[in-house]
Amino acid sequence: MGAGLDGVVPEQVTPATPSSRRADRSMWPLISPYWVSEDRFRAWGLFLAITALTLATVWVNVRLNSWSGDFYNALQDKKFETFQRLLLEFAGWAFAYIALVVYAQYLTQMLQMRWRRWMTDVYLVRWMEAAAFYRIGLVDLGSDNPDQRIAEDLRDFIFSSLDLFFGLLKAVASFVAFVGILWALSGPLEVGGVVIPGYMVWVALAYALVGSLLTHAIGKPLIRLNFLKERYEADFRYALLRVRENAEGVALYRGEAGELANFRQRFGHLIGNWWAIMKSQRRLNWFSSFYGQLAVVFPILVAAPRYFSGALQLGGLVQISNAFGEVQDALSWFVDAYARIAAWRASIHRLRGFMSAIDRAQALGEGMRRDPADRIGLGDVAVHLPQAPEAGSGLMGRLLVQADAEQIAPLEHTLIEGSSGSGKSLLFRTLAGIWPFAQGQMSFPAPDQVLFLPQKPYLPLGNLRSVVCYPGALQPDERIAQALHAVELPALAQRLDEEASWAQILSGGEQQRLALARALLVRPRWLFLDEATSAVDEAMELRLYGLLRQDLPQTTLISIAHRPQVARFHRQRLILETDRDGAPSQLRRETIPSSEPA
User: Fold this and answer.
1) Shortest CA distance to 559 belongs to which of 551, 567, 438, 1?
2) Which of 120, 191, 299, 489 is deepest in the core (most CB within 10 A)?
3) Computed from CA positions of residues 491, 481, 529, 457, in that sequence, does the dihedral angle turn out positive or negative?
4) 525: closest CA among 427, 451, 428, 416?
5) Helical H runs in 12-79?
6) How far apart are alpha carbons 469 and 387 in whole angstroms?
7) Residue 93 and residue 117: Cα distance in Å, rounded?
């Protein structure tokens, strides 16, 4: 497989929109919120402490530069006592420098984690608000792999932001501190009758400027390639996760060959992009290595004429070399940090795209007005299918369901029926308030009075006690055991403390019965069931619906079900029907003759 993947050409990045290009130019909306948050005092305290430590390391470097001149002059003049004193002095400066660096890194890591904790919570809240996590997956809103955005891109953005800022701060401080030293030590240089004062400063400026321009020209492709790298890594990881979550289905379908081909295709994109990064990084490394190695001897070569003429002692030559190195390093910060800047910009682009996608997802449901009431009322509700975003068009696709002036009163148990594809499940999601492609007006009970049970229950991570009580507060073990016995899962009542992958352990029917146990614990005023008993046999389905009617006498049942026997537990039908192909389904009410359960 490896040989066949080398030639894979990475996909091209979708061209950035004007708004995303503006976001790339302005990082402030991402950076600023934390620094005015409730954690701002500790954040600014840590920031100022790190700044002070960083500037202190520069000051120690200045002192060490002065020390190096005296030290090498003592060596040249063979002054042993001065040599011994300077060695002891060096030990003090070295210890001070090490302590400053250690505590600067420690406080930086502390600030990184505080910032990451705050920002991760903000992004998690935004992602979970208004079911944005669900809506983003319905259509392409310009953001993929939300888990990577929150877990990795936030981390990389924060860590890189602080690393780059304090690196730049140290570079600026070093330049200010050493440019004067270099100016004074280098002296004038006469070229063609023109005297150039502080010529080593101008040489350093020219050297760094040429290096920065060439670095940008050579390394520019890394920005796009780093963006793609994170995307392909996440896509490959997501494909592996999907197979793990659906292992039984893949095994039953004998889908190993298809999944393996999918893995290879996604990994091929990853490898192809990695080859492109390697080649681009290789060119950049060639240049930066030559640039760095030349910088070691370049100042000595330039200053050598003054040394050999006797205008400089050995200590002065070493001081010039060190000062030139500090100035050149400061001016070459862009060269050294270019690869990190490229990765940083890629993470910013992904985070801005993620937040933009959340904003668009949350705005999708603005066409539906929901008013609180003690009953369900549909006023000119239109339920649409989604469509892919295209130039000049919205996300609302074909109109699937049209509901006008329908009401469901408390305890008016209702069965929703219709042919496959008529829109039953979409109407169910619209009632739940999670389907964003709907318009109109709806009256609906308060959220704490309603419970929705989908066909495939969600079983979260944790022990069985928290799984049964999800999403509410934990109930006493006696009530949980009673509910599990009622839905004929008595064995589970002995395993409440056990943590396991319950979605893999329990059968589909057991999972649906566990979800009904939740309903017995929550005791909602309104219970919506979308094929919530489809995985159990007919006899069990009758017993479960009888249990709901008996144990929840004040609960209104609204069901979607295909088996006709379920009808006896309801008072009326709402039938979705259409007169012709392509026309939206209309709701027709029909009374069920006998509402008494058998």
Assistant:
1) 567
2) 299
3) negative
4) 451
5) 18-25, 28-35, 40-77
6) 36
7) 36
For residue 114, give the nearest of 63, 57, 50, 52 by alpha carbon: 50
* CA 174 to centroid of chain Cα atoms: 36
Q: How many residues does the chain have?
A: 598
Question: 114: which 2 tokens?
Answer: 């505080």
Give the model's pLDDT for residue 140.
Answer: 62
As beta bridge partners, residue 530 has: 560
Give per-residue pLDDT as tens, 166-181.
Answer: 999 998 898 888 887 7
Paired tokens of 87: 């060695």
Percent of the chain that is helix, strand, coil (3-state, to 5): 65, 10, 25
Single pTM value for the model: 0.71
Distances (CA, A) of 349 to 161, 231, 237, 284, 415: 14, 12, 21, 23, 48
CA dihedral 450, 452, 457, 460 (to 10 degrees): -40
CA dihedral over 558, 563, 567, 572, signed as positive or negative: positive
Q: Would you state the pLDDT for residue 333?
A: 82
462 has pLDDT over 50: yes
φ, ψ of residue 273 to 5 degrees: the values are -70, -35
Give the pair of three-digit tokens for residue 359.
Answer: 């904003």
Per-residue pLDDT reduced to its tens digit, 513-534: 999 999 999 999 999 999 999 9
Q: Is the peptide bond before 471 cis (omega within 30 degrees of 0)?
A: yes
CB 365 within 8 A of CB 130: yes
What would the pLDDT profile of 224-254 be if each residue is shown by its tens digit?
887 788 788 878 888 887 787 777 667 766 7
Q: In the prediction, which pLDDT does 252 show? A: 67
Determine the pLDDT at residue 17.
38
| Comparison of pLDDT for 330 and 59, the residue scoring more | 59
Q: CB count, 10 Å around CB of 201?
A: 21
Instruction: At 502, list the tokens.
Output: 């319950």
Name the token pair of 106: 């420690």
Residue whose entry in the numeric block shows the structure tokens 């495939």: 456
pLDDT at residue 389, rounded to an integer: 65
List alpha helices for 187-255, DSSP H. 199-219, 221-245, 247-253
Q: Cβ(114)–Cβ(44) under 8 Å?
A: no
For the chain, helix (H) and strand (E) counts, in that order, are: 20, 13
Residues 6+ apart with CB under 8 A from 45: none
